[in-house]
C-alpha cells in the first residue's frame, strides 16, 4: 500500500508542474503582449489569476474565503501571508482582486517558462546583497505610483522544519509598507502545507481555506520601533489565527 501511495504522490507531483505549464503555453502570446508595456500589467494580472485558478482546479484544490473587511479596489496595499507551499502563490492570485506584484527570491526565476514571466513582472531580491535590497524599494515605488499593490511572504521562505507553524518575520515587508504608507492586509493560509508541502511524498487534493484579516494602517507610523511593533502585531494576528484553525480541525477529528 505504501508503494502505491508513493507512486501516486510521484505522479501527482509531476502533474503539478505540467498543470502549471499548460495554461501558460495556451495563453503565451497574450502574456507576452501584456508585458511589453507597463500599461499592460493589469491585463497580465487578470491572466495570472486565470492561470492560478486553473492550477488549483487541476490539482483538485478548491478554496473557501472568509473576508472580514472589504478592500478598496482603487487603493494600494501590502499583502502578507504565512508561507508553506508553492501553492501560496496561486492561492494569493486567486483570492486577491487588487492587482499586485510579488516581491520574491530570484530562484523562482529558474523554473522553465514560469520563470520567464516571473522575472519580468515581479520584484526580485537577492537577500545576500544589500544593493539588491535597496533596489527593491525603488522598484516598489514605481509599482505603487502605477496604482499597484505589493505582496510579500514575510517569513522570507518556507521553513525547512515543517513542524514550525509560523517562522519569524523579516523586516522588508513592513519597512516597505511604512515608508510607502501602504495599509497591511494579513492573509491566513491554514491548509496549504497539508495540501502540497515541500515534502515530496505528501499532500492531497481538497479544501484550502483563506482568511483575510482587517488591514492595518501605516500612515501614522514612522521609525524603526513602529516597524517592529507592526511586524510583531501582524505575526501575532496570523499565528493566533493558525492556532484557531488547528483547534477547529482537532475538534472536527474528535467528532
Textual characterization of the structure:
The structure is a single chain. The chain has eight helices and seven strands. It has 255 residues and is α/β, with parallel strands linked by helices. It has a seven-stranded mixed sheet with strand order 1-7-6-2-5-3-4, sandwiched between helices. Helix 4 (114-121) links the parallel strand 3 (100-105) and strand 4. The longest helix is centred in the N-terminal third of the chain and has 33 residues, at 2-34. The chain is globular, with a radius of gyration of 18 Å.
Q: How do you describe this structure in short?
A:
With 255 residues, the protein is an alpha/beta fold. It has helices spanning 2-34, 41-58, 87-95, 114-121, 130-145, 172-179, 192-196, 224-254; strands spanning 61-67, 78-81, 100-105, 123-125, 149-152, 184-188, 206-212.
Amino acid at each position: 500500500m505504501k508503494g502505491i501511495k508513493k507512486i501516486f504522490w510521484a505522479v501527482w507531483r509531476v502533474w503539478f508542474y505540467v498543470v502549471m505549464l499548460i495554461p501558460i503555453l495556451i495563453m503565451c502570446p497574450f502574456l507576452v503582449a501584456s508585458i511589453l508595456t507597463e500599461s499592460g500589467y493589469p491585463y497580465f494580472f487578470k491572466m495570472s489569476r486565470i492561470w492560478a485558478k486553473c492550477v488549483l482546479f487541476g490539482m483538485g484544490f478548491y478554496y473557501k474565503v472568509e473576508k472580514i473587511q472589504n478592500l478598496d479596489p482603487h487603493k494600494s496595499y501590502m499583502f502578507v501571508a504565512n508561507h508553506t507551499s508553492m501553492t501560496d502563490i496561486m492561492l494569493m492570485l486567486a483570492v486577491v482582486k487588487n492587482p499586485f506584484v510579488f516581491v520574491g527570491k530570484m530562484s523562482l526565476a529558474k523554473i522553465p517558462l514560469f520563470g520567464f514571466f516571473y522575472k519580468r513582472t515581479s520584484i526580485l531580491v537577492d537577500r545576500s546583497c544589500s544593493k539588491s535590497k535597496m533596489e527593491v524599494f525603488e522598484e516598489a515605488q514605481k509599482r505603487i505610483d502605477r496604482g499597484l499593490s505589493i505582496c510579500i511572504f514575510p517569513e522570507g521562505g518556507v521553513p525547512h522544519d515543517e513542524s514550525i507553524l509560523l517562522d519569524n518575520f523579516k523586516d522588508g515587508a513592513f519597512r516597505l509598507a511604512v515608508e510607502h504608507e501602504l495599509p497591511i492586509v494579513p492573509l491566513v493560509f491554514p491548509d496549504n502545507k497539508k495540501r502540497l508541502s515541500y515534502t515530496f511524498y505528501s499532500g492531497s487534493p481538497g479544501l484550502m481555506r483563506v482568511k483575510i484579516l482587517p488591514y492595518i494602517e501605516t500612515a501614522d507610523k514612522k521609525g524603526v520601533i513602529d516597524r517592529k511593533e507592526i511586524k510583531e502585531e501582524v505575526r501575532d494576528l496570523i499565528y493566533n489565527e493558525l492556532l484557531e484553525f488547528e483547534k477547529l480541525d482537532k475538534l472536527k477529528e474528535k467528532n
